[in-house]
Write a structure and sequence with these properties.
Elements (H helix, E strand, L loop, with lengths): L7 E6 L3 H6 L7 E4 L3 H14 L4 E8 L6 E4 L1 E4 L2 E4 L4 H10 L4 E4 L6 H15 L5 E8 L7 H15 L1
Parallel strand pairs: 1-2, 1-3, 3-8, 4-7
Antiparallel strand pairs: 4-8, 5-6
Length: about 160
């Protein structure tokens, strides 16, 4: 079912634990976003307009979680919601198989993460791209007990997903 190699783009926010986890990764292309609500989305949309990507996995940090991830199913803009077409349940199972506790969340926050997610999902829908996007929150660095182990487990999960 998942034999065909898919293209993937990872996005992370500069100066956050998501950047720390993904900086210098060779296996998957990662774009470090400048942590600017307008520029982050513009950069993602520019990449999507020029390059076919099967999957966008965006990572940000969330306070008050420790040694686990939150997979965001929904982006919000006021009372409006956009749900991802990404297979969140499969990703959840793979994280758990790699010993990363996970929660499916329906609230991507109210700031940078949600804004990027909303704009990305909206752009994909409006341009009828064959791209699936998901947003994953990771803990702040201080809430990751063993960052090297956590990083290995995240990349193993992504590798298997592909």
């Amino acid at each position: 079912m998942h034999n065909e190699k898919k293209s993937i783009l990872l996005t992370v926010f500069e100066g956050t634990s998501s950047e720390l986890l993904f900086k210098g990764v060779k296996n998957f292309p990662a774009v470090i976003l400048p942590n600017d609500k307008v520029k982050d989305s513009a950069l993602l949309m520019e990449i999507l307009s020029k390059t076919h990507v099967d999957y966008v996995l965006s990572f940000g940090q969330r306070p008050n979680i420790k040694d686990k991830v939150h997979i965001e199913t929904t982006a919000r803009n006021g009372d409006l919601c956009l749900d991802t077409a990404f297979d969140c349940e499969r990703l959840r199972m793979l994280f758990e198989q790699n010993s990363i506790p996970v929660k499916l969340s329906h609230n991507a926050g109210t700031s940078f993460c949600n804004k990027l997610y909303w704009n990305g999902l909206k752009y994909i829908a409006e341009h009828e791209l064959e791209t699936e996007m998901v947003f994953v929150h990771v803990p702040f660095e201080k809430n990751i007990s063993d960052i090297d182990l956590f990083k290995r487990r995240i990349f193993e999960t992504i590798r298997i997903f592909m």
